Amino acid sequence: MNIFYKKHAAHGKWEHAIMLAVLLLATGFALAAGHTLHNIQMQQEIASRIIRFHVRANSDSSTDQALKLKVRDGVGAMMEGRLKAARDRDDSSRIIQQSLTDIEECAEEILRENGSSDMVSASLTDAWFPVRTYGKSVFPQGTYEALQITIGEGKGHNWWCVMYPNLCFNGSLYQIDEGENAKKLRQVLTPDEYKTVMEGRNYRVEFRILRFLNRD
Question: pTM to 2 decimals?
Fold first, then answer.
């Protein structure tokens, strides 16, 4: 009788432990899902207020990577002057769209001056961006409207920044600090969005449970 009771009690403990583990996993999954949904919504809100700048190098050779930065600086200098007159994001989109031919010509002229025969394509399009850090700020991964410049085959490492508000071309640091660039950002984002970007939160939330369940 005692042996039966002990076995029954042990079995009950295992059932309780399993149920507790399942409950903890379900709770953790729900919290992770809610956190991820919040991050997705916040990214979409931030994306609706800014325009990114994306330059894709021809290759990862040292020459092509150097050319990518020369194109970045040349196009950046040209667009800095033009975007000073922009009243808002929509106005900036219009100016960029109207400047696409000039952007391509500017980039190709820089390439020719540096001995490259690569062609350049420029477009204002929706593009996916990974998490990017600029100084103390962090922009979450996701889809953003962006001026995208592709040099040659566009197979090299990319360069990213923020074109509206104009955060890319203030000096040579290409980062957002708590000075003038932060003021520009504060003007176009809500307080919550600004706090999210400037706190540098980590948006690389991975569903490890889902990854485990989806393994082959």
Answer: 0.72
